[in-house]
């Protein structure tokens, strides 16, 4: 490639790098814009590397140098982006930046991220060079000097108006001179010593560019300098110049001599000068150079930049000299001696290795054998005999666990040397194979500190290289070992623990962390789970970056993944997390930090959480409450009671639920105070709080609560005024039954509790294939219990002569409990047991028997099937044993055949599906077009978008094969609120970590909203319509959010999520004022007589979203387009 082409490509690279820096500052790290610009830079650098060994950008005096050429003023004006990159480099105090040929894309990305940071930040970190060194970017070289600077008292020229630098730049071709100046140089060149000094200065200048320019490029500069010096020198002085040059050359270093002696030049570098240089070289330098040229000439077409042909020719010339002939004789004698010695050593070594394979340790005591062993084993790998080497390495590893301390150290030394050689040549597989035994060794107490230090160094290097190759899983044993030692899970000395921490920090270099976080965010090679585990094993080292990502991320799924990764880090809680909670931040960030502390914290962290119960944001308070509940241990009850009086009404509801779940005896008095604080004018929220307080008292089961609860349950109206709501009275009644059941189970009296009998008994459908048996004819009497049909157990008849109706019903209920439990339908068995308690709370033996049956059958199921745990281990890891059982037993099984629809776009679905077997397709319909979004299979969970929100399905799901799945029905969420208050949020957290439907649609380039939406302000008058289209109930109002031609959304306030959910799928009659400005934005052709038009539209509720507090957004799809409605109304 021509030099000009190289410079042009280098300018293009600078231009795109400057664009990349801007993109990095503006866009998130996972942005495709950033990836594309970095890919483009890397591609251009690769094209340059086809001809050059490096790409160098440098400042030299008033000029900028790009790949050896001056970046002219015209080019600077023509390529301002490239000039901006160079100016940024100078602002960082850098004179040159060189990109070497072996640079990786990850190194380039890390470099650009560094350059995108502020100058003060870089300076505070020690400057750009220090930062790059710390990030371990070996193929990016900062500040290799381009030109040599000579002191004034060493001036080569003293009598003309040219600096030494100007002369050097002229002879090397970087600076043109006027004819007048060249004549002055010709005058100076009459002095052979001056020529020799210029040559020395020029060579120093050339060799200082070794890390920046390819060998071919340096050769070109050398040839240019030689020709220039030849042109300005006179022929009559050639002999004297040759002598002076020879003296100068022989004192140069071997790399410079290599460059000079391999050039095929004419003029002053004649054969005579070559002979003079060879004659003046001392024997040792001569021998080393000859050996070097021999190796290069016989190894490969090009080594270290030197052409093999040139090296061979130089070697032949050297060996023809008298000095060369004497050297050849010495070399031959030495080779004969070495060959004989090597044969003896190899013979002895093979014998020693055979002895070691047989279990003899004596060869390990021989120092000479030991010194040869590592090199020999490495050669076995080199020549394809790795299996043989591995067998020997296994035997040496066995010796690490032997009783002899000296043998252990010697075996460890050999293994360490072999490992160093393998790592240096990037042969990682043998080391990965040997990892289990090496790790077993370093975790034992008997390992010497020095041997442990060396092994740690090798293991950390191996882990870092494995991560760089995306072999995350193979690096985990190393990371886990360091993690366990550092955090005290493996008891080792403080010094070794410190070394393990240092090893983790050395592994987590900038490029490694960038690589892990990139895979964590975009899952480019489908190794996100492995990347998460890798980050978690790095412990607190990765915490800072993860929390930074948590704060900046705008993607909920990504935030959930971050929380999961941080939670995996576990204890001890990193100080970084404590500091960030103390520093504060936006509510959503604080909530997430508190959530993390609630997952990995302990009782010791309660003082951090308690003040946050008074945080200004309700959502932060709620998360704080959950975290206290999770980690508060024996202190939870008192903390909750102390927070109860001053808490927000919504928080008090949660506190009461938690006190009930804890069955905290000391909570009885404050809960009774809530229950008995009824006034005639209380709010509906207060009634809800009293209802929950009653339920909590029932769960606690204290007899102290019986009299007040009985008073509420049996309370009559006073002067026509109802003191307690029906819901509170029903909750009190339920609590009394539960207290009675608890007391019966414990064998203690709980006071006489009168339970009304004249209620209708409802049982869940028992299912099963046995035919149901009805009650005998005439058994039902007015006010008696009505029992629906249900499946009976084996006995065909339950009622015996003389039994009362209640006794018969109790027997049937007990039989039903047994039938359900035997069929593993524990939710229905529990419902039947509770109905039994409600029916006759004095049937203590039957109640106890029912509980025993359920517990026995649960134990016989071996809890949760291992197959279920194996499919969703991450989900069950988040749950307590009680929550896990509740989730598992709440699921129902279903089987589908190929081409069956599970749920349809635009319709309601209340199921969250867990796929066990088979394949399904998730697809999106747009008009007549059907777009495949994703193929769903085993271990996938689908339906979360409608299960946790109030919305119709935005996509469809159908089977591609025979499918087996289990599902949760949405109704279970209400049941969990009392018994398992944290289970819904945990399940939701897990589902948020799954790729969401909206993300899949966006990534596919599809758009659910086909019509333009615009913001709109104002009120909407709304009325519910019946299925026949008739208006029902009263009008209510909503506040506009936005509108399109196909629908609108508005905000409403509601106290009950359950009531709001009833809107889904309902028809609404809406009247609103539509502004003229909105019509223009939606491109609607409408005639307005004023600034707004009164519009009436009918539409269907397709979604309801909870916003904050009592605020909900309602999303409507019009039955007919807005344009049609406006056209018709303006016409009439």
UniProtKB/TrEMBL annotation:
Pfam families in the cross-refs: cNMP_binding, HEAT_2
Gene Ontology molecular function: oxidoreductase activity
Gene3D superfamilies xrefs: Jelly Rolls, Leucine-rich Repeat Variant
InterPro entries reported in the protein's UniProt record: ARM-like, ARM-type_fold, cNMP-bd_dom, cNMP-bd_dom_sf, PBS_lyase_HEAT, RmlC-like_jellyroll
CDD domains referenced in this protein's UniProt entry, alphabetically: CAP_ED (cd00038)
Domain Cyclic nucleotide-binding: 875-975
Stated name of the protein: Cyclic nucleotide-binding domain-containing protein
Species for this entry: Desulfonema ishimotonii
